């Protein structure tokens, strides 16, 4: 895809403007709308929309979802996803048939390793996901999902439940890969398969993970009310397990954290504070370090990271910088979570006009979780606006832009 004013969309390596802004302008014109008309339909200011279109202001999550809804297009069309020439995309096409056959019995030629071996491979897969190593994750997932599907459909009783629990983990990793690379429709279909596997496992906490993951589609689509309702219902289902199981606390706390994200993008500051208080109450039962269960991380550090991100989404720039500027995520937080903290901090610094601090935060994100940083739409949007704003050559910015396949 190429970007111009004749109806083509921007690619990530086109110089001169932010990808989201350029695509909004193209899609707006294709719909026959003026900036005034689109601003009214999306309930955003014309001034902000104009600055986003020319690349002088980054397009926030809230603006992108509002504009996408007003234009009746998927959000990834505005972000320009999936990004062309990404080396990690090839495994997606191998992943599709493995997902398509999720409920079909195995063929005679399909050999299945013992569950202990599959569990060990799932552990390795989960580590790759938490570190944001998408290339390696994509190479391993298709074959593993096929094997786990065969294990579920060829066993009964306890072994079937165990294999189903492992398949939940496989689907969770596949969901993260598809979503991060911009395949939102595929990630949404995986959410339903994850729920199916969780039901087969007969594990209420696996069902909780499926609900937490499903909330992602509501978040991505800007359907915040339904997402918050889903999370409220899922937390109620976990209540009977909170007293006896730290894993249930981690799941319930993670639902509060996701609710914080949804509420902040909806601009509901009071709801954000409500869920922050509830998250802190739950974290008090876990101690000082974050814990990981069912692939989710919850505790004081991840609460702090979400608090920073929420202030960014709410537009409270000073609060976001004050909370996050000197904060260093501890080792108990996975690299993808720590990297996300610096991505959000970079956005805050850009809103404050501190360009050197933006570059510093993006460098830290790259050091911690390089592939997540490279394919995150907000990183590309932030870098694009920096390129638009800089009037003189900047070697650090040029280096970052080259790494992101952007052109200064």
Automatic annotation (TrEMBL):
Record domain HTH cro/C1-type: where: 24-78
Q: Which GO terms describe its molecular function?
A: DNA binding
Known PROSITE patterns for this protein?
HTH_CROC1
Q: What is this protein called?
A: XRE family transcriptional regulator
């Amino acid at each position: 895809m190429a970007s111009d004013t004749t109806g083509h969309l921007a690619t990530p390596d086109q110089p001169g403007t932010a990808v989201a802004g350029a695509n909004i302008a193209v899609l707006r014109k294709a719909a026959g709308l003026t900036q005034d008309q689109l601003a009214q339909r999306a309930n955003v200011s014309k001034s902000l929309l104009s600055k986003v279109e020319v690349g002088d202001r980054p397009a926030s999550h809230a603006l992108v979802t509002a504009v996408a809804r007003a234009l009746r297009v998927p959000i990834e069309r505005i972000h320009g996803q999936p990004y062309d020439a990404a080396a990690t995309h090839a495994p997606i096409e191998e992943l599709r048939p493995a997902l398509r056959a999720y409920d079909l019995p195995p063929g005679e030629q399909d050999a299945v390793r013992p569950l202990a071996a599959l569990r060990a491979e799932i552990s390795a897969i989960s580590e790759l996901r938490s570190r944001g190593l998408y290339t390696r994750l994509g190479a391993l997932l298709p074959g593993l999902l096929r094997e786990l599907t065969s294990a579920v459909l060829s066993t009964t009783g306890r072994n079937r439940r165990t294999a189903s629990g492992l398949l939940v983990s496989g689907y969770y990793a596949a969901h993260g890969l598809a979503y991060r690379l911009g395949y939102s429709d595929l990630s949404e279909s995986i959410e339903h398969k994850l729920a199916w596997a969780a039901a087969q496992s007969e594990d209420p906490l696996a069902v909780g993970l499926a609900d937490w993951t499903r909330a992602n589609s509501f978040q991505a689509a800007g359907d915040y009310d339904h997402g918050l309702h889903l999370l409220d219902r899922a937390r109620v289902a976990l209540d009977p397990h909170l007293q006896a199981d730290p894993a249930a606390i981690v799941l319930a706390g993670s639902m509060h954290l996701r609710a914080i994200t949804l509420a902040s993008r909806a601009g509901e500051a009071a709801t954000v504070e409500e869920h922050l208080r509830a998250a802190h109450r739950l974290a008090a039962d876990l101690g000082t370090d974050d814990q990981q269960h069912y692939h989710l991380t919850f505790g004081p550090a991840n609460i702090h990271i979400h608090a920073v991100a929420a202030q960014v989404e709410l537009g409270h720039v000073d609060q976001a910088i004050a909370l996050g500027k000197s904060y260093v995520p501890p080792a108990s937080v996975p690299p993808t979570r720590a990297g996300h903290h610096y991505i959000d901090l970079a956005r805050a610094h850009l809103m404050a006009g501190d360009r050197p601090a933006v570059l510093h935060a993006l460098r830290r994100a790259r050091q911690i979780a390089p592939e997540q940083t490279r394919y995150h739409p907000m990183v590309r949007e932030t870098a694009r606006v920096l390129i638009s704003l800089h009037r003189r050559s900047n070697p650090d910015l040029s280096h970052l832009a080259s790494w992101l396949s952007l052109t200064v």
